[in-house]
Amino acid sequence: MSNRKDWDTYFLDIAYMASTRSRCNRRHVGAVLVQGKKLLGTAYNGAPMGVPDCTEAGCMLVEEIELKVVENIEEVIRKQRCIRTIHAEQNLLLFTDREDREGSTVYVTDQPCWTCANMLANSGVIEIVFHRGYPKDHEKVSHLMVDRGIVFRRMEGYEPPPGTVSDVVN
């Protein structure tokens, strides 16, 4: 019997390894771009190159307010996010070629936020595989992926490699 990992686990493990490069105080996120079984790029969340990151300069938090209407009832959703940090998915798109993204899969440690989902939806990828959920944006991101015909799936029961998950704030 073989202990060989399946491809999804293998590439998600690599995304978690990439996340260990992050210096974000709130969450370490990693992403990888795969074409077939070929790894084309890795990325993690962090401040732009050459400028102080959150561990050096502190988080640059903003609060966003979203109005959601469910069954004619308005609900205000408040979200805090750090604008000092470039998300892993954004860095992945910045550092890979459009030609490589066409028909590819992105493996990411965390479900993409709305902004990253929009960018990925327009990037040429045909599949996004993630581990940890992001409930604040899950519903609208899932709808976007259905509308775009992008396979969007969470790896249930996945266990990240030891030492790759940091105790950080959601």
UniProtKB/TrEMBL annotation:
This is dCMP deaminase. Residues 6-152 form the CMP/dCMP-type deaminase domain. Its EC number is 3.5.4.12. It comes from Paenibacillus aceris. Its cofactor is Zn(2+). The keyword Ion transport does not apply. Belongs to the cytidine and deoxycytidylate deaminase family. GO terms for molecular function: dCMP deaminase activity. The keyword Glycosyltransferase does not apply. It holds the Pfam family dCMP_cyt_deam_1. InterPro entries: APOBEC/CMP_deaminase_Zn-bd (IPR016192), CMP_dCMP_dom (IPR002125), Cytidine_deaminase-like (IPR016193), dCMP_deaminase (IPR016473), dCMP_deaminase-rel (IPR015517), Deoxycytidylate_deaminase_dom (IPR035105). Keywords: Hydrolase, Metal-binding, Zinc.
